[in-house]
Amino acid sequence: MNGGDTAWVLVSAALVLFMTPGLALFYGGMVRAKNVLAVIMQNFLCMALVTVLWAVVACSLAFGSDAGGGLIGGFGLAGLGGMAHGLPGFQGLTVPPLAVVAFQLMFAIITAALISGGTVDRMRFPAFALFIALWVLLVYAPVAHWVFSPEGWMAKHGVLDFAGGTVVEIDSGFSTLAVVLVIGRRRGWPGEQMAPHSVPLSLLGAGILWFGWFGFNAGSALGANAVAAHAFVNTQLAASAGLIGWILFERFTEGFPTTLGAASGAVAGMVAITPCAGYLSAMPSLLVGAVAGVVCALAVRLKFRWRYDDSLDVLGVHGVGGLIGMVLLGLFASRAVNPHGANGAFMGGGGHLLGWECLAAVVAASYCFAATWVVAKVVDAVVGLRVGPEEEFTGLDLTQHAESAYSMGGTGRIGG
Hints:
Helix content is 66%, strand content 0%. The chain is mainly alpha-helical. It has a single domain (3-401), classed as Orthogonal Bundle (Ammonium transporter fold).
């Protein structure tokens, strides 16, 4: 064991956990005042519920010895036991297996929390809890096994995904699309004005996400080494290029850049660099961020044309951003950056890696959408996903939690 590597992974795990309160603020500022506590509560629930599920069985399903075909792990790590001989398939770790397990737990937490951005304003709290519990076991854990476990089928075929372009970004984006199609649109959307109640709150949350993302990406090197340094720098480059790309898109299409657009652009850039962070050099990382900033800005506008109510654009930013990152990784990956990776199509590696990256992205998106749609339909049939019309009008803070975010908001309707 290496003390420096272990310290870095544990600090990175804490940074990734800190991203979930950051996400809660990012989402909380973008909803109407009558629903701000409800979305923050859903994020905090994920921190506790996913932790318990991870310790009991989900970690084992994701990282346990393969139970067949590289599709799912067995129960050898259930209860966080069975790690005396290390994590199955991981060779040459310089950190304790439990540090990797803790780090990966934080990924599971924020991926589940991301889905809350699509369903705000209309999902019952008990239904959200049941949905997340089933989703972690049936959707997140299998995909994590495919990609992050060395015994997963994608990993065995050489698919590269440094920090979760499939497992976190594509998974959350296309899972959100499925559940919002099941739960339906907010009443009054898109005709009724549903403006953010506190853009500064969202910007604070975006800043926390930006800060935490260094642990998310650089921590995925599982050591304090040169690859971690590449991932750290690439994260900053992509975030900056994404921010600039998004506000330039706004400037040329709508006449003015917005602060919320700047925050969203930075997030889009970091989403897209997530699978690439430890495999790309600096200039391709800038390109990844810039492409994500422009394409994701365009993607979030398509929901109005196609009329699916992904309230806070989880699909447009995370799903689409993850797809962009996986494709560009297949083009620009370089062994000069990471000798354990591969060369992409533009780096002399031919089309092999690009083909597998595209296949992995399509399979992950398809499975996550289909499996989440089934989970959402089951939860809807058992307990009902959606609040009633009067509860939705009053707001979820009062109807689901008997609280109001602001003292002057006794009716739950401050700011809309």
